[in-house]
Predict the 3D structure of the following.
Amino acid sequence: MRIAVLVSGTGTLLEAMLEAGLPIALVVSDRPCRGVTLADDAGIAALIHERTDFSDSFDRSAYTDGLITHLKSHEIDVVAMAGFGTVLGESIFQAMPGRIINTHPALLPSFPGWHGVRDALAYGVKVTGCTIHVATAVVDDGPILAQEAVDVLDEDDESALHERIKTVERRLYIETLATIVDRGYVLTP
Ligand code: GRF
């Protein structure tokens, strides 16, 4: 199985995946970021499919189609989103149905969206966590593969809570992907 990892940020999830020896064949980023350096250092193909337009007129379909071309040319079976900052268009979910995985730093269906940690904290929940799920065209939706709870502490701010959630994600996402690799498919053969 050939996995592509999509990154935008600090890439600690990618780092954990690389350390775990998952069969990562490609790393794609939408901007220059640490993830690309990590891939280069590990000798794994990496490319920046750069997003230059952050306005309302961003051509999401064209951007997504360009990404699909890269995935096809690297013969990718499964895509693992790991803190990727661009919402992808519908075409990728048609091109690779059920084969795009995401992790979200909250217990879905609660607190979807870019600020899942902040929103959970602001709501005053005592328990939050992370969700590994099959991604669909609806952001932070789709069949749940794994979830784990993380207690919210009285002294938590967004960054402290997110770091504890990420510690869990770095284990749970890797375990989930390793299971997928072992059985050779995500939800159905
Ligand atoms: C993770 O918490 C993920 O759920 C969220 O972005 C974070 C990625 O962290 N979407 P990193 O860039 O891998 O350190």
Summary: Residues 9-14, 82-83, 103-105, 166, 169 surround 5-O-phosphono-beta-D-ribofuranosylamine (CB under 6 Å). The first strand starts at residue 3 and ends at 7. The mean pLDDT is 96.
